[in-house]
């Protein structure tokens, strides 16, 4: 057990400590916050480049509970012209909540379901919990018992507690053999067309009180007690899942986890768990996600719309205006609460939702570039203002705005009833994304911006070059490898844009193209500085404050006078 007191007892000091065992101290010295994050992630690991589709929109709910319901859900997205790349299947797809099984009554043919959805550009992600049902004849239980794969009582009996399936046992992920065994089970889901795995309840959560401190995890060679293992249990489950998927599928694994630890960014994305459909939790989402990013976890999100309680139309609209910028963009809600798909509200909500989701899809190439460079720098996607404006006292305290990468500043409305927003713009020149209005200041300034329900105030830094996509309702709907579309904001700046297959690890062997864009003196020059991927852009289309310019790329290069 670790405790952190970050300015709570006194603003003069921070303190932290652990209940037991020795502490290892690591000190990072650097001039900037970015330096420190970079060093911290050099030690603990960096978030790897995800598959492109994972940056699309994810729809989830506990519980979509039949094949037909999932098909109807997908059709509703299509009929409403709403982008969607992923549907998450919660515990109800399993047979009696037994992990690595499928309920054949509700989902008679999961493979056929994934095939049909794939044709519509939609993928499935399934939940997997650690709690494994105690049941004779169930392969996971029997194999685990036979091989001593589960945590034990101090007397050497298999330890049981209760989770969704009833009496359950807990895999010992501290053992590499158990991790391999667990990871190998992913084949069962991959074979049925599943594209990623959602790890939940991996604190581990248990309904009959927490696991006692002295529960034993035998490990490979050194038994450890739960009190020592607790913090890394979720981390090791994510590692087992990541490695299992990587070995069997070969593509960049998509894992989402509820519990994590320093370094989990190497294996998994994370969401912030069971929030509620209340304004306070929307407000909290911004600092939560920014703090996770500062802690190395770049690929994160909250349950958009809130998990528990009933979401209102207004809250839904405001939440999607934040969610569309969060790296993991997933709407999820709990059983028994109001359904939270946009059409469950009214037409206006659908239109507002579409606007936000389309903006996200428009910006995916920008996000992808941030992930590409993030794998080298450790810098997050969603950033507190202070990360780029360290000397600015307002930026330090600002919890109601955030940056997406260095060049976009989102100032969403997170208060019920508000139709205007006080926006803080740090020093420099900014452009209003929606109107093109230019706002400059030698110092930071507050401005009052109209923010009707359908608008999240959004600003772009002067000199920004934003790679964007044309309208798509799923990743890969259109061929985006012909024309490089750039939105450019007058000023001086540069950007590196990456093009690759969007799914394999080949980029690590240099199989990608890197286009360096330089904006200076009213000219944009683009040059291919790394040529490693077979597909190349033929043309560049530049949008700058209402004007469009086109140019051919010759040997990967061109120059556009704006
Ligand atoms: C947990 C998860 C939630 C999920 C539910 C049922 O509460 O945090 O996301 O829907 O379990 O599996």
Describe this structure in words.
The N and C termini lie far apart (about 60 Å). The model has no long low-confidence stretch (mean pLDDT about 95). About 45% of the residues are buried. With about 550 residues, the chain is an alpha/beta fold. The structure holds alpha-D-glucopyranose. Alpha-D-glucopyranose binds near residues 62, 90, 274 and 332. The site of alpha-D-glucopyranose has 10 residues, from loops.
Summarize the structure.
The protein is of the alpha/beta class and 562 residues long. Helix 5 (176-184) packs across helix 7.
Which structural traits does this protein have?
single chain, 562 residues, alpha/beta, nine-stranded parallel sheet, six-stranded antiparallel sheet, 26% helix, globular, binds alpha-D-glucopyranose
Architecture blueprint of SSEs:
Elements: E1 2-6, E2 14-18, H1 33-44, E3 57-59, H2 67-79, E4 86-89, H3 110-119, E5 123-128, E6 132-133, H4 139-146, E7 160-163, E8 166-169, H5 176-184, H6 186-190, E9 196-199, E10 216-217, E11 224-225, H7 226-249, E12 255-257, E13 269-271, H8 279-294, E14 300-301, E15 303-304, H9 313-323, E16 329-331, H10 347-377, E17 382-383, H11 393-397, E18 402-404, E19 408-410, E20 420-425, E21 428-432, E22 438-441, E23 445-450, E24 458-461, E25 465-468, E26 483-488, E27 493-499, E28 513-520, E29 523-531, E30 539-544, E31 547-552, E32 558-561
Parallel strand pairs: 3-4, 3-16, 4-5, 5-9, 9-12, 12-13, 13-14, 15-16, 26-30
Antiparallel strand pairs: 1-2, 6-8, 7-8, 10-11, 17-18, 18-19, 19-24, 20-23, 21-22, 21-24, 25-26, 27-28, 28-29, 29-32, 30-31
Helix pairs in contact: 2-3, 5-7, 8-9, 9-10
The protein binds alpha-D-glucopyranose.
Alpha-D-glucopyranose binds near residues 62, 273, 307 and 332.
